[in-house]
Each structure stands twice: as C-alpha cells, then as structure tokens.
Write a structure and sequence with these properties.
This protein has 280 residues and is of the alpha+beta class. It folds into two domains: 17-122, no CATH class; 134-266, no CATH class. Helices cover 33% and strands 16% of the residues. The chain is built from nine helices and 13 strands. The protein has helices spanning 27-32, 37-45, 47-58, 62-70, 97-104, 108-118, 134-143, 166-177, 183-197; strands at residues 4-7, 14-15, 79-82, 124-126, 147-150, 214-217, 223-225, 231-233, 242-244, 246-248, 250-255, 258-262, 265-266. Helix 3 (47-58) packs across helix 6. The protein is elongated, with a radius of gyration of 22 Å.
Amino acid sequence: PIYAQCGTGRAGFAFTLEHWNLYDASPAWRAVTTGSKEEKIAKMQDPELRQSLVEEAEEADRRLQVIQAGVGGNPKSLVVQGVNRQSDLQKYVGKSVGDIAEAEGKHHIEVMLDLSLQGDLNVEFLGPDKGSNADFMAEMMNTSPYAIPGVSDGGAHTKFFTGGAYTTDFLTWLVRDEAVVTLEEAHYRLSNLPAHAAGFRDRGTLSEGAAADVLVYDMEELDILPNWIGDVEYDLPGGEWRRVQRAAGYQQIIVNGQITFENGECTGSTPGKLLRHGRA
C-alpha cells in the first residue's frame, strides 16, 4: 500500500531574505536570493529585477503558487516578526506585508524588499500556520488506514522551522486540547503504523518480544518550548545556526532497554542502531 504522510504539525515558516530559498520555482526570486549577502542586496536594489519580481507575483504560475502555499501562502499574508532591533522599523512588527503595502501605497513585493534592505536582510517574516484545522486533521487520522501523522523534513530547512515538534503538537493539540483523536489512536498512528509501513514487525508496540523502546510522559505537562518558532542556536559545523525547539513533559525515553533522556536531560547513552527496511 501507499501511505500518506499528513501535515498535522502546526508551524509557520520564519525567514529572512538573506537565507530564503523556497521561492526557487520563480526565476526572478532564484536570481535575487542567490550569491553573497552583498550580491543579494545589490540585486534587490536593481530596478529591472524588482520589476520582474512584481510581475511574477501578479502572474505566478501554478507551480509557484503551490510552493508558496506550502510555505505560508501568498507573500501578502507574511507577518513581520523581527526587525533586527531597529527602532525605525519597530512599527511594522506584527503587521502583514499586505497591510503595510496598502497603507504605504506600494506593491507587497516592494514592501518585502524595502524592509529587508532597511534591515540589512535581517528583517524576519513569518508565514501563517496552514495546518490548524482540527476537524480536517481528525478526519484523516480517524478514517484512513494509511494516514501517518507528521510532517518533519528531517532537518532540511533548519533556518526556517523545526519539523520534529509534530509529535508533541499532535498529542497536545488533537488529543489533549481538542479531544478529536483518542490517545489509543494517536499512539497507534505515531508508533505502530510507521513501524508497520517501514516493514518492521518487532517494534512499535508494547508487547512481549518487541524491542524495549518506551516513551514515558505526563500528558498534562506536555509542551513545546518555545511554542512556535524556535530558539536560535549556533551549534552546526562552521558556526552555522539552526532553529531549536524542546519538549517538556517527557519523563523517560528508553531505547533498546536503556534510558537516553530522563526528565528532559540527555543521559549520554546511545543504544540505538541503524535499521534497514523490514529488518530489525
């Protein structure tokens, strides 16, 4: 069978134009957002390139529209989240690009470019969460035998969002707060079904003979910290940074019978092993 990975996580993309590359289906955006920081600034000031971006925004093909929808929708809906501590830009924080454009008589693409240039490409935009329809998510989880909750990109977009929070979000949002998915169904969808889809028969359930992989948590204490965007940590090779979210409420994580995390603290134990499809 074909299994569907369902986007049950609530997370918006946060980005600056210094690092953004998810509009690459647009030749104009791809041109503007490649190169060194200095080259990007020069391109964003170029009248011809700016006009190309405006024209593409008005005549976006289907592929670009789909990509934009996946990362927050039309750029008009982006919200200014951070302005690099510049007092003259503080008035824009919390406002959408579309609202700013209307108030200032500009095209919304010009607003994105101008704000970014004024903030030395460090003005941060936040895309709206597109997955907060609890009833729709519940229908997928409760009716389809092939729907697996998610989605994480495995760390492919570390500067834009933290996809790994979807498990905690699923439990706190759809199970605890909205009560539209039962706890038993959630455990099945998050554990047994993914193992089955990957061809593993000796894990994913708490049963005799199965691998001793156990998660112990307090449902009332479960939380994602910080809740939406994530902290920034400079812990990647070369001093690069990524967005990080942590979870609260998990008392023990046990892998192959050994405790790897206890009350949120890593024990240093690494008992996990690489699994190949259908072979545990």
